[in-house]
Amino acid sequence: MQKNKCCIVVLFVLVFFPAGIAYGQVLDGWITAKGHFCTLYIGEDVDIKQLNRRIDTYRVDFGLSERPLRLTSAPESEILYKFDLVFLKVQELLDMRPGDIHVDVRIYRRKKELDKLYVEIFSERGDLVAFYVFKLNTIFACEEKISVAVVAHEVAHCIIDHHFTVAPPKKIAEMIAHYAERHLRG
Ligand SMILES: [Zn+2]
Tell me: the pLDDT tens digits for 131-175? Predict the structure, then answer.
C-alpha cells in the first residue's frame, strides 16, 4: 500500500512537472511561467503580488484527490499553482478531462487593454472582464478584474471547447461555465 502510494506520488510529479518547465522568465515584455495546464504570460506592468492576492483559492482543493505542487514561493509560481489547481477542480466538477490540454494565459494590467484586444480579435466591441479564444488557445484576463471565479469560468470554457468534438450552443456553454464558477469551493 505504502509502495503504491509512493509510485503514485512519483508519477504525479512526473506528470505535473515536465522537462523544460520555467518560472519567471521575461519574454518580449511578459513574465512567463509554464505549468501543467497552462503557460502564463503576465504583463510587466502587472502587480504580481496583487494579482496573486486577487486569485483566492480558499477551499478550491476541497474534495480533490490530487493537487499540483508549489515549486517555489515566488508569486508567479503561486499563481501558476492556482491556475493548475482550478483546472483540476473544474475538470472534476464537469467530469470532463480532455487529454493533452495546455493553454496560454495572458494577464494584462487593465480591463481597457482587454477591450482593445477584443476589438482587434473579433472586430466588434466587447465588455468582458476575461475571455477565452479557442482558435488562439488563450485565456485573456486582467489584474484589475480577475478573481478565482473569473479564472474558473474561463477555464471551464476552455475545457468545454476541448472536450466536445462539436462545440455546444453558446447558452449551454455559459450555463456549464457558471456551474463551475458557483461550485468551485464545494
Ligand atoms: Zn462565459
Answer: 999 999 999 999 999 999 999 999 999 999 999 999 899 999 999
DSSP characters over 52-100? HHHS--TTTTTT-S--PPP--SSHHHHHHHHHHHHHHHHHHHHT---TT
Distance 154 CA to ligand 1 centre (A): 7
Domain annotation for the chain: domains and CATH numbers: 19-182 (3.40.390)
Taking the centre of ligand 1 as the mean of its atom positions, its distance from the CA of residue 131, in whole angstroms, is: 7
Instruction: Give me the helix-helix angle, 148-163 and 75-94, nearest 10°.
Output: 50
156: CA distance to ligand 1 center in Å? 8
| Distance (Å, whole) CA 185 – CA 121 | 33
Distance 150 CA to ligand 1 centre (A): 9
- Taking the centre of ligand 1 as the mean of its atom positions, its distance from the CA of residue 93, in whole angstroms, is 16
pTM: 0.85
